[in-house]
Amino acid sequence: MTAIPTCPEEFHIFDTSLRDGAQQEGLRLTVADKLKIAVYLDELGVTFIEGGWPGASPSDTQFFAEAAQVLDLRTSKLVAFGATRRPGGSASTDVLTRALVDAGTDYVCIVAKSHDEHVIRALRTTLEENLEMIRDTVTFLINEGKHVFVDCEHFFDGYRANPAYALSVVRTASEAGAEVVVLCDTNGGMLPSWMGDIVSAAAQTGANLGVHCHNDTACAVANTMAAVEAGVMHVQGTFNGYGERTGNADLSALIPNLQLKFGWELLPPERLSEITRVAHAIALVAHQPLLGRQPYVGQSSFAHKAGLHASAIKVDPNLYQHIDPALVGNDLRMLISDMAGRANIQIKGEQLGIDLSDRELAARITDKVKAKEAEGYSYESSDASFEMLLRQELGILDYPIQVHSWRVLSEERDGDTITEATVKLTAKGERQMVVGEGNGPVNALDMALRKAVATAYPEVAEFELTDYRVRILDEGHGTDATVRTLIDTSWRGETWTTVGVGTNVIEASWEALLDAIVYGIFTHIASD
Amino acid sequence: MTAIPTCPEEFHIFDTSLRDGAQQEGLRLTVADKLKIAVYLDELGVTFIEGGWPGASPSDTQFFAEAAQVLDLRTSKLVAFGATRRPGGSASTDVLTRALVDAGTDYVCIVAKSHDEHVIRALRTTLEENLEMIRDTVTFLINEGKHVFVDCEHFFDGYRANPAYALSVVRTASEAGAEVVVLCDTNGGMLPSWMGDIVSAAAQTGANLGVHCHNDTACAVANTMAAVEAGVMHVQGTFNGYGERTGNADLSALIPNLQLKFGWELLPPERLSEITRVAHAIALVAHQPLLGRQPYVGQSSFAHKAGLHASAIKVDPNLYQHIDPALVGNDLRMLISDMAGRANIQIKGEQLGIDLSDRELAARITDKVKAKEAEGYSYESSDASFEMLLRQELGILDYPIQVHSWRVLSEERDGDTITEATVKLTAKGERQMVVGEGNGPVNALDMALRKAVATAYPEVAEFELTDYRVRILDEGHGTDATVRTLIDTSWRGETWTTVGVGTNVIEASWEALLDAIVYGIFTHIASD
User: Fold this and answer.
1) Residue A336 has pLDDT above 50, yes or no
2) CA A184 → CA A125, A152, A205, A519, B22, distances in Å?
3) N or C: which end of chain A has fewer CB within 10 A?
4) Which of B225, B312, B406 sits opposite A411 (nearest CB)?
5) Residue among A218, A405, A503 minimizing CB distance to B412
6) Residue-wise pLDDT tens digits, B223-241
7) pLDDT, tens digit, for every residue of A223-243?
8) How far apart are alpha carbons B268 and B277 in whole angstroms?
9) Is the Cβ–Cβ distance between B239 and B15 less than 8 Å?
10) Contact in structure between B170 and B126 (CB atoms under 8 Å)
């Protein structure tokens, strides 16, 4: 009743976050973003990373050029995406096919049409010419030394409309030398119970098969699992399910499903336990909030609201969880549980080398944290501010600077926008009054603040504000709402995060800026 | 290969958004919220609405009391949730069973344990007493005039551990008179291919079966579909997939799947086409942003970004969509981005009522869009700015206001942060010089700008800035980087989005603010 298929000898996890994932509305990845994400994927150890479509978009071309220079992948292999050559042409002279070769990857994946109606109406060519395009393009790329995968676009719809033609596309690609022929549910309309027979029919061609699913029926992961059960040896997906329309099969769920439900060791267990971290890191770079209830990796995925479940969990957590969350690097979380709260604080204190084993002290700090979080502060992503709060409560926070006042002015003068900040403070007994310019009020304040502090603490001039995030907390109120700002500051390879909250975004930013400088001084610069 | 099961004569859509949905972390529903959501669900026409657990939480008790007074459901039936009586007691004297009766609904749904280990370790009673608790509670409730459903908690895990006992629970509930016995995947660890055999085994008892799935393997909808294919006549789920941990089966995907993929007419077609509106309305009440890529009902679910897709969509939209989006009340949307081709631009122009069939014109605008996107603009989520760009290129954009200068100042004075903006402009021939205060520079500029324009166009005073988003484009450069701001402006039920880009965040915000006002004037206020 719980059939477990055997893992094929060769099995590919093919990540297309950087290509199909980037098709998601609102998701824009710069070349630098893509390089960062590729490093995370390689750390996790997916088999393939599809990087983009060289030649079709200038930034994708640039990605492959930079990747060749700076990416040093240890586990994963980079893949360039492309298409079959144009009808009536030749793969050897096609501009896009050329760009694919020039991308310099060992692996390429090309999309081919496999639905007869699409060949005729969208591609406006004959069914035979489409097969010839596949043959010609695959052969050409192999002759150029590439390993070739072929994505059969609209394969499932195509098979339902004209099975013989859809299968002839698979056969043609495989016979021309494609190492994997990928069956794509491009429009995403399939259901799991419809997958098996079609995949089995395609397997009759003898091709190595892969699958590529979209989530239009909320079944992308399930459809992929069904194809795996029917014998595919290559699964395509994206992290966090990013992708065109409803997104692609979510690898952050698919990989744990295959590894923990089927017992296939696709990743070493110590890598699988990095998947929550990797999913969150990718979400951060993609600037997409990660859904709390995202399977396996979401913040709420192993969270229990107190009640019916709580007493059973005290008996044995496994009574109310389908896997041990540590396997995927996630945690069981008890919500609205005072004990869990205090335990969290104690564990964090331990990590910072501050003893909080005193129950009363830990309870007082827990209350303080809860009160601040209710105001809008968030400490789970700003350890530096949490440490400042801890030290303040323990009476061991010595402010190395005293701020008297600050102000910042932006104006348009003759078509140029100019922003200037003035900061007055005292550091090491000396009063400073400094003006800074910047590309916005926060930048100008940061410049002025660091200049003012640097007289007393010269290292502060090297501090760099590396990230600045603003979150409006009561949405629907526009600019007239409480805001939270998070600031990342880096210095000599260390990075720390501080948080500020206020109804005025400049005030919230100032708080985070000041904490960033103060934290940097007392943790990284010997005070005297 | 695409097996379509036949719809049972009686089939229930059982919504538990108000009960299990409310278990989601961060989701808090007041009694008023629940009443509003119940009205939406009734408008759509689900069979049952589970309202909460009377007696277990005071606000749930209050909900049923108020529902009895004010809710006038036309299609759906309200259900009160409860549990089997305590071990060793009697249903007739159990406080919670009593509260269930007092809730005053015709239908009740009680949870019973069906996993032997849970009976022994969590409930701390015998397997036989658990069966007796079910018999006693169901019989008592029927004698009180109720229709009774029984949720078998952990049924699938229980069946895998001890099939005979799990089936005896189903049999006991059914024989005692439960009208539906609901098989629950409480921990959410099932896969679709594991459902069929277990559901079929349960069906051997002769009970009417239902299913209740969670999304811990990203398969809640697929598991529910698999159970339906195996013969259940009752599906439980929540709107937008809200629920404990990873959430429940998402009815906003499940209902369209059953109706459009299986062809079952569960709702009249004109009601199904309300499902997108209902899903969004529920999200609004629940104060949960609706994920853009949510199947069927998400804003991105029928949105196309790739140029490859757009050219085929010009031939026939059905080539790249799995259903007609109008069936669920959603729309095809063309996204304008640097991946867009001429076809995207032409379709978008058509939607705006602007003729771009001229190839040269369309190509020129495509180039312009790509150049602006390279600078950092993003038109896929800012239709208003795209329309302004179009009108500018076509020479049909008449600026109703001329800005001379603006400036904004933030400063800390005696511990308070004050932000003031000054705007000078001419509208309808009159020069205005206005000062505004705000909770940050953008808020202050918005205030001053609208005040200055409102003398000439009084409706502008009612414009509301409802969302403001900032994205730093070259991360790793901190505040010293290009930023993009997106602003949503609302007026009398219409919302439009504008974009601004600059190295100075205030300059970028000003651009988006000004465009928002100008767009609002020329599209919504008759110009003279």
Assistant:
1) no
2) 21, 6, 16, 51, 37
3) C
4) B406
5) A405
6) 999 999 999 999 999 999 9
7) 999 999 999 999 999 999 999
8) 16
9) yes
10) no
Residue A240 Ramachandran class (φ > 0 left, ψ -120 to 50 alpha, else beta): left
Tokens standing for residue A420 = 């200037």
- The residue with tokens 């994505």 is A151
Q: Is the per-residue pLDDT at B11 higher than 80?
A: yes
Chain B residue numbers touching A195 (CB-CB < 8 A): none
A489-508 residues touching B, CB cutoff 8 A: 502-507
Query: What type of residue sits at position B151?
Result: D
ipTM score assigned to the predicted complex: 0.78
Q: CA B342, B345, B350, B353: dihedral to nearest 10 degrees?
A: -130
Provide the token pair at B336. Answer: 């304008």
Cβ within 8 Å, pair A505-B241: no
Does residue A254 sit at the B interface (CB-CB below 8 Å)?
yes
Distance from CA of A355 to the nearest CA of B (A): 30
- How many beta carbons lie within 10 A of that of residue A428, not counting itself? 13
Length of chain A: 528
Cβ within 8 Å, pair A245-B304: yes
Cβ neighbors of B526 (< 8 A, separation 6 or more) are none
Residue among A222, A254, A467 minimizing CB distance to B222: A222
* CA distance to partner chain B, nearest, from residue A271 (Å): 19
**Hey, which residues 139-158 in chain A have their CB within 8 Å of chain B?**
none
Sequence-distant (6+) residues with CB within 8 A of A403 are A423, A424, A425, A514
Domains of chain A: 12-286 (3.20.20.70), 302-335 (4.10.430.20), 401-456 (3.30.160)
Q: Does B467 touch chain A (CB under 8 A)?
A: yes
Query: What is the pLDDT confidence band of residue B131, given thresholds at 50, 70 and 90?
Result: very high
